[in-house]
């Protein structure tokens, strides 16, 4: 996926409503130094210097979704205790909808305490309830899910086997998802995956897939056998097996298995990496990406997550930077219209004068460069609308363009005088002009003002049209004819 499309994905994330159902818990981190052995027993003495309380379990999935820009609601059961109060306050501070969170006064809210010294986990202490929630609270969850599921674009299941996700609750979730056409994405636990039957996609790691399928995964043959058994046996649309340093493998009904290689990265902590995969994969599916596209982005996000210590989130900026590192300068300038319109609004607030021009720019030559340099002098920000390959063919014939739109966009973006490039598929740039509302609209000197598309729009809010004369004798057609004649 190109950087501009990834930026559009995260722009659309603001409109995505995600429902997270699962086991909520608190992750407490006690950071310190271990410089001596206790005289009382042969154990390290850790001198605590810092304490950190974070959302864990399904709460870390919520953290990831919020970091990605989504609107999030939670459905779960917690205890009526101090830790439950801490959870509520933490969620409220993030703007999370808690209408589906119910308090059971007889239940203990899960809390895991990790003691860390020299970036090494020394010990973990768990305080939690593991029994299934009562039939009364199962009915409360099912009632909420059945009544409210239609409000959401995607449902995420984060199972930590703490008793919230009973078979009855899960059956109601998958049934609602199927009935409404909403993706149900599951991070599974345990060895009995029958309770997840009918979900859209599961995201087990290799060890979990091996245990659930009862098939040893030592090589690709074992992997394929286990993946196909789970996919078909559970009536899933997809199965994404995460394989640590070997990347991920995506299984889909009637589609060849896709192996996604990992990105080489130093691993500090795999805690919460599965939550990152679940969150990014779910966002991609909610935005209409294919499973392969969504899994590819989730793979990159997981690589970033394991480079951090503790349950950490991954930001859109980090994912964009990682995927777009191949052409960092030009990639950053090429935008889709939805992202660009938002950026332009911000620049206008800062007082920037926006200039717009458009063209095919097939075989960029000195005439184009000087034209663009002159256009840039009319304001503070030059945006170039670039005709797509299809629109160039419509305008100039089936033999054009000579250079495909992605390459033309990168060449333009490499020019210092160009601030942003946006590709459009229509014959005219009117839609771009209406969306971006530039102060100055620039066209070549071979036009008259009356013939400039968008002139009326720009002048309606006080903008103007500027005509720039091209360098004599310089044109793409002329270059093509010279090559034909002389070479």
Describe, in plain words, how this protein is organized in 3D.
With 487 residues, the protein is of the alpha/beta class. It is built from 18 helices and 18 strands. The protein has helices at 3-12, 58-68, 82-93, 135-148, 167-180, 206-213, 220-233, 273-286, 291-305, 316-323, 328-333, 337-349, 366-376, 389-396, 405-413, 430-436, 455-460, 476-486, and strands spanning 17-22, 24-37, 44-57, 71-79, 97-104, 110-117, 120-127, 154-158, 184-187, 201-202, 238-242, 248-252, 255-260, 354-359, 381-387, 420-424, 440-444, 464-468. The strands form 3 sheets. The protein has a 9-stranded mixed beta sheet with strand order 5-4-1-8-9-10-11-12-13, sandwiched between helices. Strands 16-15-14-17-18 form a 5-stranded parallel beta sheet. The protein has a 4-stranded mixed beta sheet with strand order 3-2-6-7. Strand 12 (248-252) and strand 13 form a beta hairpin. Helix 8 (273-286) runs antiparallel to helix 9 (291-305). The longest helix has 15 residues, at 291-305. The radius of gyration is 28 Å and the shape is elongated. The two termini are 38 Å apart. 41% of the residues are buried.
């Amino acid at each position: 996926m190109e950087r501009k499309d990834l930026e559009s994905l995260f722009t659309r994330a603001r409109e995505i409503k995600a429902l997270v159902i699962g086991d909520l818990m608190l992750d407490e981190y006690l950071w310190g130094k271990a410089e001596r052995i206790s005289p009382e027993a042969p154990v390290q003495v850790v001198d605590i210097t810092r304490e950190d309380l974070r959302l864990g379990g399904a709460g870390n999935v919520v953290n990831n979704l919020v970091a990605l820009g989504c609107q999030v609601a939670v459905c779960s059961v917690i205890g009526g205790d101090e830790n439950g109060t801490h959870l509520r306050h933490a969620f409220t501070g993030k703007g999370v909808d808690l209408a589906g969170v119910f308090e059971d006064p007889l239940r203990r809210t899960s809390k895991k305490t990790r003691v860390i010294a020299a970036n090494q986990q020394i010990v973990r202490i768990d305080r939690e309830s593991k029994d299934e929630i009562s039939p009364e609270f199962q009915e409360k969850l099912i009632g909420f899910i059945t009544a409210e599921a239609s409000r959401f674009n995607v449902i995420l299941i984060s199972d930590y086997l703490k008793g919230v996700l009973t078979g009855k609750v899960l059956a109601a979730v998958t049934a609602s998802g199927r009935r409404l056409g909403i993706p149900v994405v599951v991070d599974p636990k345990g060895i009995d995956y029958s309770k997840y039957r009918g979900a859209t996609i599961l995201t087990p790691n290799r060890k979990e897939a091996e245990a659930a399928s009862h098939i040893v995964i030592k090589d690709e043959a074992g992997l394929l056998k286990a993946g196909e058994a789970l996919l078909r046996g559970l009536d899933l649309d997809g199965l994404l097996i995460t394989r640590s340093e070997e990347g991920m493998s995506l299984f889909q009904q009637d589609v060849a298995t896709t192996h996604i290689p990992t990105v080489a990265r130093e691993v500090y902590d795999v805690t919460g990496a599965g939550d990152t995969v679940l969150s990014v994969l779910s966002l991609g599916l909610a935005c209409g990406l294919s499973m392969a596209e969504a899994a590819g982005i989730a793979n990159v996000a997981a690589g970033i997550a394991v480079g951090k210590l503790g349950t950490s989130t991954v930001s859109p900026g980090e994912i964009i930077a990682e995927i777009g590192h191949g052409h960092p300068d030009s990639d950053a300038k090429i935008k889709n219209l939805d992202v660009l319109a938002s950026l332009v609004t911000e620049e206008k607030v800062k007082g920037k004068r926006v200039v717009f021009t458009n063209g095919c720019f097939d075989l960029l030559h000195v005439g184009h460069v000087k034209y663009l340099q002159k256009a840039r002098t009319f304001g503070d920000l030059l945006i170039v609308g670039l005709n797509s390959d299809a629109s160039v063919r419509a305008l100039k014939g089936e033999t054009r363009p000579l250079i495909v739109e992605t390459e033309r966009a990168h060449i333009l973006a490499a020019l210092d005088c160009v601030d942003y490039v946006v590709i459009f598929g229509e014959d005219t740039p009117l839609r771009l002009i209406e969306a971006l509302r530039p102060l100055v609209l620039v066209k070549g000197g071979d036009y008259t003002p009356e013939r400039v598309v968008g002139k009326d729009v720009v002048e309606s809010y006080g903008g103007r049209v500027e005509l720039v004369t091209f360098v004599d004798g310089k044109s793409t057609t002329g270059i093509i004819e010279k090559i034909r004649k002389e070479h």
